[in-house]
Design a protein that fits this description.
By secondary structure, the protein is mainly beta. The protein contains 1 helix and 21 strands. Strands 1-2-3-6-7-8-9-10-11-12-14-17-18-19-20-21 form a 16-stranded antiparallel β-barrel. The protein has a two-stranded antiparallel ribbon with strand order 4-5. It has a two-stranded antiparallel sheet with strand order 15-16.
Length: 427
């Protein structure tokens, strides 16, 4: 049987072979300037509150997270950084997992990363290879058992990035970086979704895993410190995602021999301005910073869509292609000498599908492509109680509207609001 070169097991094995070499470099007495030291850093948070989705009555929910990183320094140039991250969201949320908004009740994430940091040329160059694993569990209904979710997935990854420090201040970038990563994602509980979403999610052969995919991803990023008050940053990402078992749906409702490939492009840049502190009282000073941001996302996919409902039987080419643009404004306030930090963020996003057509409530197709507008407001208030212990209150309001009304498969029109309060601890 032909081996799958993109399987999670083979990539983990290949990188585990490399880890002893990294450890040897770190522990080699000829390369280490001092005995290794370990420092545990991380944070934990537990928040409780209420959320409301659409016109439903408010419901109680919770947020919890934990990040642990026992950083091992072999010298001022070599560092091993293991990271474990846990995240739980206990409220309704609409997430894009297969090309459209799907409503989930709860989400549970576990992630592990092992990163090596090697610095050269007095710290002006830094190279950071890594391996990672991530597990995500979803509950679409409150009575669904954890680990049985249709869209639960496991992801293994490997790659690295290199960063070069340049000018400390001015219009020459302060730093530039580039990276490459490979990710392999598997959906262990997947079954055919043809009757729910369309023929592209049918299983053309027994045992096929049509959502399993492999991603090659490249990144470029840079930041500037133009003046002590003005900073800017920019990032560029391009990825190629291959679905080895998902065949292309054709106009006659048959499958071609070709498989699905998505190409994604993401551009983001922004700037921050630090205002002069304002003395509102002789012993109280307010600091303010404002960030403006812009993002552009573009997806090209060769997958089509065939609506198998007997009342429609509609073929739509390039069903997953879209362009999305977003703007954001973030303000951050610091109240000294009181340990208070307040931030507020507004984001507007507009997504335009190139060929996905609008439908009325009964499912009948129109001639215009779908677009969706999303407005999101997020607030965050923290008050330091003692050393790393903080009181935290967060709020979120989202309003998404679209020119389509048919939402049996994906959610386009919805409103949600939530507020949570609790404790966070940083160490």
């Amino acid at each position: 049987m032909k081996k799958n070169p993109g399987s999670p097991k083979r990539f983990l094995v290949s990188w585990l072979r490399f880890l002893p070499a990294m450890a040897y470099v770190g522990w080699n007495p000829l390369a280490v300037e001092a005995r290794p030291t370990t420092q545990l850093i991380g944070n934990a948070s537990v928040l409780g509150g209420q959320f409301r989705f659409e016109r439903n009555s408010p419901s109680s929910g919770a947020l919890a997270s934990l990040t642990l990183s026992p950083v091992v320094s072999f010298s001022d140039r070599r560092t091993l950084v293991p990271i474990y991250a846990f995240n739980y969201r206990g409220f309704r949320d609409v997430l894009d997992v297969i090309g459209g908004g799907t409503l989930f009740q709860q989400t549970l994430e576990n992630q592990g990363v092992l990163k090596w940091v090697e610095q050269f040329d007095g710290g002006r160059w830094a190279v950071k290879p890594f391996v990672s694993f991530k597990s995500v569990l979803y509950r679409e209904t409150t009575n669904e058992d954890w680990g049985k979710g249709l869209f639960d997935y496991n992801r293994v990854g490997t790659g690295g990035n290199a960063t070069r420090r340049l000018a400390e201040q001015g219009y020459i970038p302060r730093s530039v970086g580039m990276g490459y990563a490979f990710y392999s994602t598997t959906y262990p509980n997947f079954r055919s979704l043809a009757s729910q979403f369309g023929r592209e999610f049918d299983v053309p052969q027994p045992g096929s895993k049509v959502l399993n995919n492999q991603v090659h991803q490249g990144t470029l990023e840079s930041e500037w410190r133009m003046t002590p008050k003005v900073r800017a940053d920019a990032s560029l990402l391009f990825s190629r995602r291959s679905f080895s078992d998902q065949r292309i749906v054709q106009e006659d409702d048959s499958f071609s021999r070709d498989t699905r490939t998505d190409r994604d492009f993401h551009l983001e840049f922004g700037g921050v301005y630090l205002f002069e502190p304002l003395d509102i009282r002789p012993d109280v000073r307010v600091g303010l910073s404002v960030r403006l941001g812009y993002s552009l996302d573009r997806r090209w996919s060769n997958q089509n869509h065939f609506d198998a409902d007997i009342a429609r039987l509609k073929f739509i080419p390039n069903f997953y292609d879209f362009i999305q643009q977003g703007i954001s404004v973030t303000t951050q306030w610091v109240l000294a000498p009181w340990p208070v930090n307040l931030s507020a963020r507004y984001t507007f996003e507009r997504r335009n599908y190139s060929d996905r057509l609008i439908q009325n409530q009964g499912g009948a197709y129109g001639t215009d492509p779908i677009h969706q507008n999303s407005h999101v407001v997020t607030t965050n208030l923290s008050y330091r109680l003692w050393k790393g212990l903080n009181l935290r209150i967060v709020g979120n309001v989202r309003d998404s509207t679209s020119n389509t009304q048919f939402e049996r498969f994906f959610r386009y029109n919805f409103k949600s609001a939530s507020y949570f309060g609790g404790m966070t601890y940083e160490f």
